[in-house]
Amino acid sequence: MTTLFAEGLRKRYGDLAALDGFDLAVPAGVISGLLGPNGAGKTTAVRAMATLIDLDGGSASVEGFDVRTQAPQVRRRIGLVGQNAAVDEILSGRQNLVMFGRLFGLTRSDARARAVRLLDMFGLTEAADRPVSTYSGGMRRRLDIAAALVLTPAVLFLDEPTTGLDPRGRNEVWDTVREAAAGGTAVLLTTQYLDEADQLASQISVMDHGRVIASDTPAALKRQVGRDRVTVTLATPEDLDRLGARLPGVRDDESRSLTFDVGVSEVVRALDELGLTAEDLVLRRPTLDEVFLTLTASSSSPSPSPSPSSSSSSKENAR
Ligand code: ATP
């Protein structure tokens, strides 16, 4: 069953359509990435699906419960991790988790047991009894995510979970997110880092101007935007002549290479037929950054409202 579902979501702020027909479906146990330039509407979509703002149109549900008419049932089934930590600095990691468990209605012993399990899952057992103020950025973020998982939510919303973390901290948080999904939670992740979406998400929705303009697996999106490119290095200029005559490509005499815009098998077949041996053969796949830039550059605004962000912020999103 689709755990998180949204169809035709609309939200206006004055003249601006922050959500303009937003659709999404995330099954249980799936990590879904939501990408888009600044101002595309990602935060608005997340807040609407998390029952935090009213919608002007469309419908969304969590495990079949309607976010507009059954908000209490939805709230019991979601976890939301924003960029500002929800945990208390003075308390220890364990105390924080027990406190969240109690807030969510667990008995003291259940809350304690859940805290032990979460601390273990997220590699925080050793630091469990130290005040959070002594934690690294990555540890705090992991604790924050653990706090959102106290009740094992059906849906976990993560808004830019690794912003400001170093590579090690990011990796630690990624493991946490994978753990959450492995437990059956549907995860919706917004991120500015395309490699993060590539690493974590099995499904990616690119949004612009309040709607999803492409949704697929990372690999399929890459295929959609660009083909593989193959660069072959050969021993002599004569070999380059022969291969170039058989298969048109871009020649670089300095590196004695030819680059082709065709599949690798076609290049290997041509080499075989000519009896040539490549000194080097490099396959370059399109990156998600290219997908993002291509898609958001070509999505012209259908809404009358100006969207100053799509071109300038693409840079930022692509780092
Ligand atoms: P970012 O990557 O910068 O966080 P985003 O994709 O999350 O951007 P949103 O924050 O959802 O985008 O904003 C979408 C649009 O709606 C923006 O143009 C924003 O200025 C506008 N907007 C969001 N919230 C409000 C509000 N409370 N009042 C007026 N306009 C708003």
Describe the 3D structure.
The structure is a single chain. The protein is an alpha/beta fold and 319 residues long. It has two domains: 176 residues, Rossmann fold (3-Layer(aba) Sandwich), CATH 3.40.50; 57 residues, Alpha-Beta Plaits (2-Layer Sandwich), CATH 3.30.70. It contains twelve helices and 14 strands. The strands form three sheets. The protein has a six-stranded mixed sheet with strand order 6-7-8-3-9-10, with helices on both faces. Strand 12 and strand 13 form a beta hairpin. Helix 5 packs parallel to helix 6. The chain is elongated, with a radius of gyration of 24 Å. The chain starts with a strand and ends with a helix. The C terminus is likely disordered. The structure holds adenosine-5'-triphosphate. Adenosine-5'-triphosphate binds next to strand 2 and helix 1.
